[in-house]
Every structure is written in structure tokens, then in C-alpha cells.
Predict the structure.
Amino acid sequence: MTQAEVNRLREALARAGERRLIWLEGEEADCIARAQSLLGGTVFWLGAGPECYVPQPAAKALQRLGQECDTLVFNAFSGFHSDAFGALAGTLRAGGLLLLLTPPRAQWPAWPDPDRIRLVAQPEEASRAGHGFIARLAWLLAGDPALSLAPPVCPQPWQPIGPERALSCDQARALPAIHKVLHGHRRRPLVLSADRGRGKSALLGLAAAELLRQQPELNIVVTAPSQATVATLFAHAARGLNTTSEQTPEQLTGLSYCSPDRLVHEALQPDLLLVDEAAAIPTPLLEAMLARHSRIVFATTEHGYEGTGRGFHLRFKRVLDSQTPDWQEIHLGEPIRWSESDPLEPLIFRLLGLDAEVAAPLPPTSPSWRLISQEALASDESLLNQLFGLLVLAHYQTTPSDLRSLLESPDLDIHLLEQDASLLGVALVAREGEIAPELAEAIWAGRRRPRGHLLPQSLLAHAGFKTAGARSYARVMRIAIHPELHRHGLGSQLLGKLEEHYRQAGIDYLGSAFSASADLLPFWRKAGLTVLRIGLQRDAASGCHAALLLKALKPEHAPELAQWQQRFVRQLPTLLAGELKALEPELVWQCLQGCTVTAPELGEFERGEIECFALHHKPFELCQSSLQLWLARHLAVLASLTPAERQLLIATIWQYADWGVLAARLQLAGKPAVIKGLRALLARLLGSPTTR
């Protein structure tokens, strides 16, 4: 195209409120040269490129969120990073061109894409990764309307947001509703739902700025899965407060960012809480926010790389109906940066599975299980959309990168639970282990930490089990049942099929590692998996500690697993006094259910000390060490207690709980009441012949 033709195309696109993708194929140097002749306006360049355009690696793409561009250059020779591609396509405004630089389409799938390195344990193993994701991209791109270079005909010019039109109609309707959350009745949260590009985050920023201008003393807190997620919000707030957008969130007086985990576990009391990208935050954290804060705005993306509002609605609307029945919802439907007729956004959604939907399932009568190859899945667009839609629906954080991993990761098995043509459930399983002895030794010693092999690496490096590297593992990465079919036993049925399949395949252990919660762990324990590790740090996004569980699939490994479990149970009380001090006592009990530990016999002195506390007036602190020995020997007694009684024992004896905090949780009047309750409980237990 000549420069004049490019200019005419841009003008026509701007008038219509549309954007286009230009696919440049060939040698990398030639593609870069051709791209330079098409540039115009503000340019964002991702991947290798001329220094004058300040090219950025795709991994840093999120730094561009909240900004806009007229030309987006995506150099796929540097790696097709699907999350970055999806995120940055949303920064391209009407009249803009997305220039995609790739090898020739026939060669592109087999091209040694650098992004495939993250799919394998060692860089030299990248050739083991599949080609299905890129092959599907090339197939979907060919002939799509978003690649048409014919200038669109638009009788009525599109009117963008700008000086003459500060807000969209939807934004103008939502702004006073946000004000009402602060100034109206308490416990009436607002949910803002929208597809991406509808100005949802911008609206939150503008609303915060307007409120702070009216009441400078306000304390408004923003939470989101990550601080990068709220760049747009803070940029608009800074603009509304007439401050520089370069200021960090901490520098905006009255408006601050707080991670979901910290917000829930610290006593923050903002006047207004803004929850951006609520769909990407686990429901238990959202429930905790709802219980603790009376003035909240939840903003959620219906379809987008940040998360899925469909899952949010299924998981959280029931909670809102129950806890705050007067909650309100406003949907933002009008695009801000482009018009409804723009063909690029639908293409991006198709390419990255952002619009993947799973159909409503049939009532299960005779579900069937099957294993499907990545090649077969990549060539079945209908099934792929169903499967990825189910993963998105069932999990709070599913991204385009997960779609690439699904189609190209080596050592990944895809298990389906179906009834006729209806998809009921899916499980993704990674085959791990059988690590070379010298590498396993280096991992155990802390000198190496290669990608992948999560289960054996954690057992080697964190738990210190030297034999773990040689074993083979089937790690359940995801197991998802359609939300409308929960409580039908389908998850247990699918997990049972996995166990049967991998036992027949000669795998040593079936396992999983996930963010553990008291409502999730029983599913895995019921299936016979044993907890072998609890991570020391809470995940900032989920607010939970990671748990690692295993089940031996060969009888000869049962003694080894029992030995590993003994080590975990012996170590746990020490961790509960330190790094795991805040672990929920009910989760502690679930980790210990069914465990027996070889603990030292209590001597006459220790027994007397415990009786002196339980039946008389000896101070708790002076006999805590004896109580710790007693509890380690009598783990089975926890099963007969109520959750409050288990909390009383575990939190005081092992976790050195703050007396005031524990009293509040148990609804008791301070330390004396907690001690009184503990004495009474121990006196009752000591009266039993099994716990003396």
C-alpha cells in the first residue's frame, strides 16, 4: 500500500469507528521493513524492532494497559504471547491498524516460537511442544473480515468519547449509581458488568476522582487481582484530580490499591471499596469483602483476558442475593474505543477463546469418559469452544495462555466426561517426574529449579524427599464440572476414571497442587489423596495457601507415601507456630484427618501438668509444651469435635493465636473466657479413656 492509501484507510476506519489487522508474512527483516511503511500516530511495538519505536518484550505488555495507540505492531517472530496479544489489542483505538508479523503461514506452526519455551522444562525441549495453537490461529485469520483493506463505507460518522462527549450513555447512567453506593443506604453493593473496552475501569477512576473532589477526606480503596490491572483506573483518577498519571497509586491522596489477600486479612476500613476485575478474584475472598465492607462496587468483565463475568455471576450472584438482597447491577454495553461494527474485536475473541461458551448440559444419566488428543481437539472448533468455555466458567483465572498450553504443552492429557454430544466435565493432567538423578540432586540441594515437574520438584526442594525425583506422577492441573451439575458426584466419577487410567498406565502417583480451602480439600481427601505439603505463603490472588496431595497407585509405594506423610505431620506443628500461624484451623484438621503420628509417649510429669491446667489453675503458657505433645498423640480426637472446638485446640496449643482475635472469632469475652473454654474442653477429653 502507498502512504496515501494507508492514510485514506485510516481516515475511513476512524469515521466508521473500526480497526483492521494487516498480516505481514515472510522473512522477519522484510516484515519489519514493510511494517515501518504502515506506521502512523502513536505506535506500540511488541517484540524485536527498530530502537526508535521503543520495542518492548511481550512479557511487559501490561505496562501499556490504560494507554491508547493508533498502530500496534506485534512481532510474532519474538514469540506469540497470547495474553499480551489479547491485552494490547484492546489499546488500539478506532482508525488503528494491528500489524501482525509472522513467518509464511504454511511455515508458521512449525516455526521455533520462543513462547513455546515456557511450555517445557528445558529450553532445548521446545521442539517437543505441539503446533496446534498456531495452526488454528493461521486457519482462523485467513479470510476474516478484520483483514479486509477495503475502506468501510459509513453514512453516519461514529462519535468517539472526547471533549464533546465526556461519557458514553452507559457510563453516564452508572456514574450516579456509584455515588449512591457511598451516600445511600449501607449494604447495597453495585455490580458493573461489561465486555472489555466499555470504559468500566475508566468509569471507576473518574467516579473516585469526582468523589474525592467533593470530599477530599474520603478513603477509597481499590482492589484487583494485581496492581497492573488497575493502571487504567488510576490513570483516569489522576486525570480527574489534575495530577500526573506518572504518580504511583500510593501517591494519589485518598485513593489507594490493596491486594485482595491483604484486604481480607488486615483491618482496613475504607469509606468506599472498588473491586476491579472481580471475576478474576476467588469467590471466598469476594464473600469476605462483602461481609466486612458495607459500601462496595464490584466491576467485572463479561468476556476478556482478565477473567470471566459468567463464572462470577454463577458463583457470586447467589451470595449477593443471600447477603445483600438490595444489590444492583448496571451493564455497560457501548464500546468506548471503537464502534459496534468493528470486526477486529470479534476476531481477537475467536482467536483467543475469549468468547468460548459451553452449552447447558443435559441431566446426567450415563456419562462416558474418553481421552482426546491435542491434535483432535485443535481441529474440532466446536468441541474446543465447549471445553475452553467450561474451563473459563469453572475457574476464576483462565487466560489465553491457558488455551495455548491446552493445545501445545507436551506431556498433557485431556480427559472428557460426556453424555451424547453434551460436555459435562473436563480434567487436564500433566505427566511429570522420572527426573535424571543428577538434576534431582541439584533440585534437592536448591541449586536448580527448572520449569515444570511441579510435584516432584516441590517434594524434592521443599519437603526434602530424595527419592521423589525418580517417581512418575499424573498431576491433575484442572478438573472442572459444569456448575449446573455440581453435587451429582461427577467430579468424583471423573477423578476415579483418572486413577484407573494412570494405574493401568504404570504411573507411580496421582496428585494435585492447588490453592487449598476448607470447602475444596474434602473432595480430594475423599478420593484417598494425602496432604504432604502446605505452602508457606498465601497466594495474593486467591488468599489461600497451596496444598500438595498424592495417592500411591502402586502397592510398593504405599510405605514411601506413609513415610512422607509422617514427616509432614511431625513438621506441621512447628510451621503452625510460625509461617502458618494464620492457617484456618479447620484446614489444619482436614490436612490431618486420618493421620497417625509416631509421637513420644507422655511421661508422668507431662500428664500431671496437663491435668493441672485442665482441672485446676495452672497458667496455660507454662504447660503449652506438654499440651503440644498431647495433641500430637491424640489427633484422632479432633474428628469428634465441633469446628469451634477444633479451632480452640489448634489455635491456642499450636498456633499461639492472639487471644483477642481468637475470642472475637469464637464470640467469647476475651482471654479469660477462651482459657475457661479450653480448660472445660480438655477436662472433658481427659475424662475419655482414649485421650488420657
User: Anything to note?
Assistant: The CA atoms of residues 219 and 254 lie 5 Å apart. The two ends are 88 Å apart (CA to CA).
